[in-house]
Amino acid sequence: MKITIIGVGLIGGSFALALKDKGIAKHVIGVTRSKQSADKAIALGLIDEALPLEEAVSKSDLIYVSIPVDTTIPVMKKVMDLVKGNQIVVDAGSTKAALCSELSGHINRRNFVASHPMWGTEYSGPEAAVHNAFAGRACVICEKEKSDLTAVAEVEDIYKKLGMNLVYMDAKAHDIHAAYVSHISHITSFALANTVLEKEKEEDAIFELAGGGFESTVRLAKSNPAMWAPIFMQNRENVLDVLSEHISQLRKFKSALEKENLNYLYELMENANKIKEIIK
Amino acid sequence: MKITIIGVGLIGGSFALALKDKGIAKHVIGVTRSKQSADKAIALGLIDEALPLEEAVSKSDLIYVSIPVDTTIPVMKKVMDLVKGNQIVVDAGSTKAALCSELSGHINRRNFVASHPMWGTEYSGPEAAVHNAFAGRACVICEKEKSDLTAVAEVEDIYKKLGMNLVYMDAKAHDIHAAYVSHISHITSFALANTVLEKEKEEDAIFELAGGGFESTVRLAKSNPAMWAPIFMQNRENVLDVLSEHISQLRKFKSALEKENLNYLYELMENANKIKEIIK
Q1: What interface predicted TM-score (ipTM) does this complex get?
Q2: DSSP string of chain A?
Q3: Chain A residues in contact with B207 (beta carbon < 8 A)
Q4: What is the pTM of this model?
């Protein structure tokens, strides 16, 4: 199978490695924003060659788009205008409603499979790509019914070979769930980093004392703003909903402490403990 | 060296394992709240025998107190009244100011070394104890000057053998730093769990979609309220300070999204990225 990956960073680069590791593609073409990225991606063994978008698309059976969600829409429109016959276009974006809506009336809509492999780290760029990235994680496929049957089957087959668990939902439902289980975690982590940086001027003390708990909650604050700002903006209404709820939950802790209400504090924490039943 | 551990849970049990692994103590006595805990701790190989507090203290060179911080103060007073000669008493509490203040005028103050080994997981009880728990982490020793020189040297030697990095500060400074690098992370995590549990009724969707980011930020929400509620209450003022700042940092994200101010959103996230320089 001839595959082009548009955007060879954390996701695209890891996808390229997985394609080769699983024997799905021998030759992977990359489309990158800069020659520098292309050189890096080739040097790291992620792609075999870098080509301009039009040429890459014309040579491929499947085109995988893994770039920030704000640039995904214009790039996808361009790609969708170029595809012919049974070429398959897949995106890997963290938001789905805006893109699916933009492409809903496109003449080649059936060539497109909307997907979100739910894996990531706080790192970005070709250097962030890792082997065996997606195994054991969920991959959401949206609006399956709007895609060509064989295109969907092909994409499902690839994700399954990567070890992913397929989940199906409509684009709006995806964006709501993603706000809860991914986007809010990033905002709290960014805000926690800002809290500590604001209040704690003796940085050596943080460095020396910061234990496992702090590192795990603040890890996501290292994430790339160029990837996450567009996600938050595109999923603005859902993210604002969850963020408002989160602030009100924090205020409950504040109120329990202000009033020295130990019972209420216990109640809040015991309720939170129920997450054990969901996240093993 | 004969050592008694009062409270053989996550910290005390892991400390017991480390003492044996490093050849610091061959025989470890446990003091537990219930016969059930004692039996578990013996069955798990954490302690060799369980004794009542008075008898255990009388037979030991060093008494290690690792129980929730609300019970630490009365138990420590009892232990401090019992010690004689050059017996050493060490606590492992996550708050230091209240305890140090309570014991400041005690006739045996010099027998006491105030410590906080900064390691933990979201699990509790004897079953939560693990080997090699403390290696590479910071251990704070407070008010070193109020402890006997040889007692401090002995405690430092033990923590160093466990692979910990010793940090010295006064008790109030410890509590401020602990609020930033540990206590607030737990509150945000509890609140995040409550947010998701409140808003997301389709629990299967969380279970299926929750990726690495969510798990790492929400992990601490599994922590034991009986351990954490007393910590938050004892360090109430510092925790409230940091919590207020955290809520105001979250409001900045809310405001940036409400106003669709992409530049401000970038600015907030780029500032948060500075945490990279502190947490490698």
Answers
A1: 0.93
A2: --EEEE--SHHHHHHHHHHHHTTS-SSEEEE-SSHHHHHHHHHTTS-SEE--HHHHHHT-SEEEE-S-HHHHHHHHHHHHHH--TT-EEEE--S--HHHHHHHTT-TTGGGEEEEEE----S--SGGG--TT-STT-EEEEE-GGGS-HHHHHHHHHHHHHTTPEEEEE-HHHHHHHHIIIIIHHHHHHHHHHHHHHHH---HHHHHHH--HHHHHHHGGGGS-HHHHHHHHHHTHHHHHHHHHHHHHHHHHHHHHHHTT-HHHHHHHHHHHGGGGGT--
A3: 278-279
A4: 0.92
